[in-house]
Amino acid sequence: MKQLRYLVALIAFTLASVCTIAGGFIIASPPGNHRFTNSQVLETRSMQVNTQITDQIAKTTIDQVFYNPSGSRLEGYFLFPAPKGAVLKNFSMDINGKQMEAELLDANKARKIYEDIVRSMRDPALLEYSEQSLFKVRIFPIEPRSEKRVKITYTEVLELDNNTTEYVFPLNTKKYSAKPLNNVSFKVDVTSSSKIKTLYSPTHDVEIIRKGEDRATIGFEAKNTVPTLDLKVYVGTNKAKFGLSLLSFKEQGEDGFFFANISPGFSPQRDEVVNKDITFVLDVSGSMTGEKMEQAKKALLFCVDHLNPKDRFEIVRFSTEAEALFGKRMNVNTANLNKAKDFIKKLKAIGGTNIDHAFELALQEKNTQDRPHMIIFITDGKPTIGETQEDALLDKILKYNSEATRVFTFGIGTSINTHLLDKITEKTEAYRSYITPEEDIEVKVSNFYTKVSSPVLTDVKLTFGNTRVNKIYPKKVPDIFKGSSVTIFGRYEKAGNVTVTVEGTVNGKRETYTYEAELTNEETNYDFIPSLWATRNIGYLLDQIRLHGEDKELVEEVTRLAKKYGIITPYTSYLILEDERITMRRDRWDNNNVIFNGRFEEVEEEQRFMDGNADDFGFMHDKSGAGSVRSSKEVQELSEAENMAQSKAGAERLMYKDMEGNSRNFADQSKNVQGRAIYQKGNQWIDLYVQDEKNKALKANRVQFNSDEYFELLNNDPKISQFLSLGNNVRFVYNNNLYEVYE
After folding, report:
1. Helix (H, G, I), strand (E, B) or coil at 497
2. What average pLDDT does the segment 547-557 reach?
3. Preceding omega of 141 cis (within 30 degrees of 0)
4. Residue 242: φ, ψ to 5°
5. CB 322 within 8 A of CB 283
6. Count of other CB atoms within 10 angstroms of residue 550
7. What is the C-alpha separation between 528 and 566, in angstroms, rounded?
8. What is the spatial distance between Cα 254 and Cα 564, in angstroms, rounded to a whole number?
9. DSSP per residue over 564-586, as a string?
10. Is the pLDDT of residue 188 over 90?
11. Is 26 in contact with 78 (CB distance < 8 Å)?
12. Beta carbons within 10 angstroms of residue 611's beta carbon
């Protein structure tokens, strides 16, 4: 009878439990079970992580709350994958306030634990950590329908690579089986004996707060979330005025990929800021009447209030005609600021939209050689007076702009000509922003201005010695502003030691900064680099298609990159599906090689999905309207992506029903493994490399999931765990062999 009660309780627990692996996790089962048989993973309700990084030493404290949803008392083990490659200095743990003894298992012993759990639970997700050590501690009792709080503190030594340290926290949850965590928060306090320059996360949108040259805090918080990536943070230090972090990744037989971050770090000195000229150009036509006008005026007042003491400025208002406040750029002083504020407060919306005259006035004064000049241009409409034809107007603006002044555009609403504004920013090597009706103009403009108000290095050039680099994004290195950094992705031919030179202008004087670094000749942990490089490349190519017409070679390159690196957006998914259809018809593929098609519940669902994606691709060619604004924003997000979250522009529109009737999101059905994409189709994961011409003739090595042969494959080469952890059915190419894991 007692056994029956345990069985009923276990069944109820199995149905109610949530399998999460975020930070540490608790494997629980009825009392007396010490071999992970019939075990489940307890639900993680919340997690708070606080880390102190001092030079290369990181001390991490994790506070996790677990929940037993069953009606039975359980016992289990708290397991925590130790950071890969870390040299752990010390470790402590308390559970509900009681200090506990824990065991640290090396990678080989940890792999045996993972194997036991996978054999029992028939879920290989834990194999992701097969190259890592493991903390293990027994927990008893775990009361029914109650919480268990676990605090763990450990200290590790971080590796240093080109003056850059990598901190990794195991945040990834089990694939497609996790209930959202109620709350996840991270706080990373960084202290360095050298000047902190680079602070960067390729995986998450983090907040960075600099507190001095040698101190900073990185924060991240999310609610009701299912994490899919481990958190990575990079800290670069350098005593030079500008710091350079350089990381690289290289797949055998191909050019390498590099990531470079240039940062001035924290600098409180105003004399390090470049003196600039700035012209604010505001549309006051009749369509700006009401709330738009009031918000735009507040934004302009904010910008004027935050001019630097040695700046010069001008304001141009335009409607039927344009009017300049001063007639030339004026110094920042009390009298000029007061005159500007009075001018702004009296602005009223009336008349047409004469963009032609506005740029003529804004660019009539010649630039001063030692001062960069930028224009902030705000409009909500298409040109209706003066030159109104897009190409002719663009030609006139570029003629006025003979000195290559950067023009930052803000388009308000959906009635603007996005192609005109985007071409202006493209030609002047600046940025565009769009403010939809539900967004606040004041917030968007003031946030942007805060970032660009204090340039510290302009007209920047980046060169590499001892190797050839190419396909660099952004194409032109942008100006560097106080408190920010510039992130660059590119390709390189030759590995080894390199000399990197950063050159730029500071108050009219050219300055040069030289750095010695190394580019790798092998795969590294930095496998985020190829994916983010491809994201920016695709964003750039899509913009070329948007603004200059659909070229066959550009479309083919977007399709190839999107497939290889898993950049699934409404614009690329349409191309990917169509490309595979054509190849299937031409080559009569075996179903084992079909990745993207045949995944939908029914033909009508597939057609609906394709039609929606075709519409999104078509909106790129529209010059105005909500679809045009959305595509401009999303394509620019791709071309400027700095982390994996930003590589999924428009992902919310990629929902569909799969063959089993389950709701899926196409953008979430790819994983980046060893620098390329693996795709989920139904219950199977398929490596894109199975479609490679050279791999089609490979005979599949079929290995049954959970068999002795399966674990022998893992133990012979733990790196293969990155593929095995994806699921029970995986088809992939590794070391020139084709493997097919099946249930």
Report:
1. strand
2. 94
3. yes
4. -120, 130
5. no
6. 12
7. 12
8. 14
9. HHT---HHHHHHHHHHHHHHHHH
10. yes
11. yes
12. 11
Task: Judge whether 435 and 481 are in contact, CB under 8 Å.
Answer: no
Which amino acid type is present at position 274? V
Per DSSP, the three-state class of 255 is coil
Q: Where do we find the tokens 């608790």? A: 26
Strand boundaries in 55-157, DSSP class E: 57-68, 74-81, 90-95, 98-99, 103-105, 134-142, 146-157
338-363 pLDDT per residue, tens: 999 999 999 999 999 999 999 999 99
Tokens of 426: 């493209």
Exposure on the CB side of residue 212, measured as CA atoms within 13 A: 8
> Rounded to an integer, what distance in angstroms lies between the CA atom of residue 83 and that of residue 53?
14
3-state SS of 363-378 is CCCCCCCCCCEEEEEE
**Please, which residues have CB within 8 angstroms of residue 428's CB and are 6 or more apart in sequence?**
401, 404, 405, 406, 407
Distance CA 278, CA 265 (A): 24
| C-alpha–C-alpha distance, residues 29 and 20, integer Å | 16
Residue 188 corresponds to which amino acid? V
What is the number of residues in the chain? 743
∠ Cα 518 524 526 (to 5°): 90
Residue 568 · residue 666 · CB < 8 Å: yes
Question: What pLDDT, on a 0 to 100 scale, did the predictor assign at position 687?
Answer: 95
pLDDT tens digits for 457-513? 999 999 999 999 999 999 999 999 988 899 999 999 999 999 999 999 988 899 999
Q: For residue 577, which amino acid is it?
A: L
Is the Cβ–Cβ distance between 246 and 269 less than 8 Å?
no
Residue 297 DSSP one-character state: H
18 in Cβ contact with 178 (< 8 Å):
yes
Residue identified by tokens 């946030």 is 447
For the chain, the straight-line distance linking the first and the last C-alpha, in angstroms and rounded, comes to: 35
